[in-house]
Amino acid sequence: MLKRLYDWTMSLAARPRATLWLAIVAFVESSFFLIPADVLFVPMALARPLRAYRLALVATVFSVLGGIMGYAIGYYAFEALAKPVLAFYGKLDAFDTLRACAGPDTTLILLTTSGLAHLPPIKVVTILAGAVHIGLAFFVVSCVLARGARFFALAFLLRRYGDTIRHFIERRLKVIAVAAAGLLILLYFGLKLVAGSGQLLSC
Question: How far apart are CA 117 and CA 149, in angstroms?
């Protein structure tokens, strides 16, 4: 079923309203959909490299809007909506573990790693942020920076190197994204240590 869903998502790139489909997939990915928007974004940017940055903007904006929807689900309807969705994807136990120690610092880490490298899936983190009542402004800014960094980095690589970079993106980009997220997190906590702001983690 997952393979069919993946293939169907890829097939949307060839449709006349592919940009609309990209917006839809980016939106639903951040709240409940299983397939990442990259699956659609990469072939579209390869087909029209001059529009890569415009596509990155569309993907970023609608990913953030979808994240706000995920946040709202976690905030207002966790038992009714979020819990069944997480159980369906087999993520409920992982979610409960994250929720046990979620706070501003932990959530910032998760928003960074999920936004840049899909670790953990972004839908889990957006619902978590709402469930633990993280500040909405903090949440939105984090999503814009992390998701924007991923999509615009992809746009830059695809526009500059074309199809020759595709194998690298599919095989190696996640490793680099994780390393970049780790560097940002270390920088953040380093600044907290220098500032003497006290406890670093929420658990």
Answer: 11
Cβ contacts of 139-144, under 8 Å, gap ≥ 24: 139/67, 139/68, 139/71, 139/107, 139/111, 140/64, 140/67, 140/68, 142/107, 142/108, 142/111, 142/112, 142/115, 143/30, 143/63, 143/64, 143/67, 143/68, 143/111, 143/115, 144/60, 144/64
Q: Whole-angstrom Cα distance, residue 80 to residue 177?
A: 34
Q: CA angle, 36 as apex, 99 and 10 as ends, to 5°?
A: 160
- Sign of the dihedral defined by the CA atoms of residues 57, 74, 137, 183, in that order: negative
Secondary-structure breakdown of the chain: helix, strand, coil percentages, each rounded to the nearest 5 = 80, 0, 20
The whole-model pTM stands at 0.79
State both tokens at 79.
Answer: 């038992």
Q: In the structure encoding, which two tokens stand for residue 51, read together?
A: 């529009």
Q: Which amino acid is at 119?
A: L
Which residue shows structure tokens 């009714």? 80
* Per-residue pLDDT at 160: 87
pLDDT tens for each residue of 93-126: 877 877 776 666 777 777 877 777 777 778 888 8
HSE-up of residue 172 (Cα within 13 Å, Cβ side):
5
**How far is C-alpha 48 from the chain's CA centre?**
23
> Can you tell me the distance from the alpha carbon of 53 to that of 68, in angstroms, rounded to the nearest whole number?
23
Instruction: Please report the pLDDT score of residue 72 as a whole number.
Output: 94
Q: For residue 107, give both structure tokens.
A: 């959530």
